[in-house]
Design goal:
The complex is a heterodimer of chains A (348) and B (229). Helix content of chain A is 52%, strand content 18%. Chain A has 348 residues and is an alpha+beta fold. A six-stranded mixed beta barrel of chain A has the order 2-3-8-4-6-5, surrounded by four helices. In chain A, β7 and β8 form a beta hairpin. The chains are: A alpha+beta (348), B alpha/beta (229).
């Protein structure tokens, strides 16, 4: 790193420019990752936060919207595993003059502490309470009936609507009254360990881990797929851009490298020097970009679906550094192929 | 000591090959400067490239400080250049981002980590060499802040940092005025004697030849005359 550090010091402007471009790419990737994470959380956080090992839907259902479990299916599951039925539907709720789309989660109280115990009452997730402008003690309208707000519970989202928790019988009643059918539940939420295949076969269901069940949530797959594709392309572009920078830099250094080789430089020391230089530039650029993403993420209003977590900041940063280093490795050829003979005579 | 014994070197040239060195034998003894002269295209640079282990000859032996160099691998040749051969380039070939002192210190960074000297040792050696070439007060200057003669002096100091057995000097005065050129040659002669290197000096500058210990003339890749002066 002897020459690398001094090159960095002597050509500050050039390396600041490269690090700046890397930082901008990092900001772009970080913002998209944060937005993707935020949108994903608004889609699935209620499901991911369930205390569940498996989630079972109707065998042929393409999504939770299609899933409908009968009382017999619920009984089959409860006979063989520690499982609770969960009813899921979406409708518009009203409080005074305010209406908002909400997701109804009807379940026994054993499923989640947010589920109310008394019929005729609901728990509003914080975002649901904010959307409806309602609090504890208020009455909200669900499918033409009034329900007393019993509690305001932590944030939970399902398919971009805030969750309203209610008892399973109340959910079944609303579901039936809206013409959606007489399902006992939408899915089964199971914990612990059991022979899941056998239960699925007996109950006519299809179960999977909560993570693997996420694509059954409407729009999740297409939404995350599109954003994931954009992020993937950005990663590829960043690798090419960073690699191109180092190829050009390597070509500009060929003369100096030829001198060092003529003086007896080992190829290993030249490689270490080049890769070390790339690592420093990448670390500075990615670090700067990540700092901007974190600062912006903290400053964004809560209405913006932006998830600030290691998954949306540190992971993209690590990937960018890794891809940049791969680009730098591929760009080593101008360095290793420099001909020391060109240092002799008046070739320079 | 350096010995090139019956060395032949050819290069591809279209469909055939051109002979750059034709059965050339040269010996450089410790503490002496052997001049290599001749017209353009006579093979001077090729001889230097072979002596520097940058090119492998087609035939003949190259022995540097007791090591048979002609058959070495690229890594072994690089190690030999790093430890036993000093090269003073025609252009100073200083690295633009390094100061005068760092141009010398960088030599310690070229090998594998285990082979490096301690930082203080290298700094002391660098300052000693800068003093030897009269530039100890310019240790912090970069190449663009130095004159051509000063750059050549650093070029020489860098070549001597590893206490090489052989010093190869390529046209040291070609980019200098006559006074600066004479001063650089004087320095080469003095340091060769002081450090006991076997110095081969390629030059077009006939005015410098009488000051050298021996002169070999090349024409069309062949030694046409060799004379002790």
């Amino acid at each position: 790193m002897f020459v690398a550090w001094r090159d960095l010091r002597a050509a500050r402007g050039r390396f600041a420019l490269i690090a700046g471009v890397v930082a901008l790419i990092t900001v772009l990737v970080g913002f998209l990752s944060g937005l993707t994470g935020g949108l994903a959380a608004q889609n699935v956080s209620a499901v991911l936060n369930l205390d569940a090992t498996r989630i079972a839907s109707s065998a042929g259902a393409q999504s939770f919207t299609d899933s409908s479990l009968s009382a017999d299916q619920v009984a089959q599951w409860q006979a063989h595993a520690q499982a609770d039925p969960l009813g899921i539907s979406q409708l518009r709720a009203a409080h005074r003059d305010t209406t908002a789309g909400v997701a109804l989660f009807g379940a026994p109280a054993t499923l989640d502490p947010a589920v109310p115990t008394a019929s005729g009452t609901v728990s509003l997730s914080t975002d649901g309470a904010a959307a409806l402008g309602a609090g504890v003690g208020d009455q909200v309208q669900l499918a033409g009936r009034s329900y007393l707000v019993d509690a305001v519970t932590p944030s939970a989202w399902y398919s971009h609507t805030p969750v309203v928790w209610l008892t399973l019988p109340d959910w079944q009643q609303i579901n039936s009254s809206t013409g959606a059918g007489d399902a006992a539940a939408t899915v089964m939420v199971a914990r612990g360990d059991a022979d899941w295949s056998a239960i699925d076969a007996a109950a006519g269901t299809r179960s999977s881990s909560p993570l693997m069940a996420l694509p059954l949530i409407s729009a999740f797959k297409s939404e995350i797929g599109s954003l994931g594709l954009i992020i993937g392309l950005l990663f590829a572009i960043s690798a090419v851009v960073v690699g191109a920078f180092f190829v050009v830099w390597g070509m500009q250094r060929r003369g100096d490298v030829a001198i060092l080789k003529a003086l007896g430089a080992a190829n290993g020391s030249l490689r270490r020097d080049s890769l070390g230089q790339a690592a420093v530039v990448l670390a500075v650029g990615v670090g700067l970009g990540t700092a901007v993403v974190v600062a912006a993420g903290l400053a964004l209003p809560s209405a913006v679906p932006f998830l600030l977590s290691p998954l949306t900041t540190l992971l993209p940063a690590a990937l960018l550094i890794a891809l940049g280093l791969i680009g730098a490795v591929l760009a080593l050829r101008p360095v290793t192929s420099a001909d020391p003979l060109t240092a002799l005579g008046s070739n320079r | 000591m350096i010995t090139l014994d019956d060395v032949t070197l050819t290069y591809p040239d279209g469909d055939g090959r051109v002979t750059a060195l034709d059965h050339v034998s040269v010996t450089g003894r410790p503490g002496t400067v052997t001049g290599i002269t001749g017209p353009s295209g006579s093979g001077k640079s090729s001889l230097l490239a072979v002596a520097a282990t940058l090119v492998r000859p087609d035939a003949g032996r190259v022995v540097i400080d007791g090591t048979e160099a002609a058959g070495l691998s690229l890594a072994e040749a690089a190690h030999l250049r790093r430890t036993r051969i000093g090269i003073m380039f025609q252009q100073a070939n200083l690295l633009p981002s390094l100061t005068a002192l760092e141009q010398i210190q960088v030599m310690n960074q070229l090998g594998e980590r285990g082979s490096r000297l301690r930082r203080a040792q290298v700094r002391d050696r660098g300052r000693e060499l800068l003093a030897a070439v009269g530039l100890d007060r310019l240790a912090d200057r970069r190449p663009h802040q130095l004159s051509g003669g000063q750059r050549q002096r650093i070029n020489l100091a860098r070549a001597l940092v590893s206490r090489p057995a052989v010093l190869l000097v390529d046209e040291p005065t070609s980019a200098l005025d006559s006074a600066a050129g004479a001063a650089v040659v004087e320095l080469i002669l003095r340091l060769t004697a002081e450090q006991g290197t076997a110095t081969l000096l390629v030059t077009h500058d006939l005015a410098q030849l009488p000051r050298l210990d021996e002169v070999i003339e090349l024409v069309d890749g062949r030694v046409t005359s060799a004379a002790g002066i």
